[in-house]
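Please go through the sequence and fold tokens given here and tell me how the chain folds. Record follows.
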Amino acid sequence: EVQLVESGGGLVQPGGSLRLSCAASGFTFDDYAMTWVRQAPGQGLDWVSGISWNGDSTYYAESMNGRFTISRDNAKNTVYLQMSGLKPEDTAVYLCNARGVYWGQGTQVTVSS
């Protein structure tokens, strides 16, 4: 059974940091580029960041402006999203996906004082 399980979300104050994890199972993880997207309340999906299968290439939405860092550990079948300088507008459900084929359920990030 294919699974992508996100974790690490929570409530954080503006300016704070969180590290999201996405643990994969049931497919060959290092065959897939991985992506993080987010969905704010009442909004559509917003692409956040992507990483190539071997981690050599990373991509970010402009609005992340160097605040987010994506990485992966193929030995652990896990992709990460380190987020710093969080803003209230970063509040959303964050989901990972494997090349748009497999999707997780998401983890909630709330940025509020």
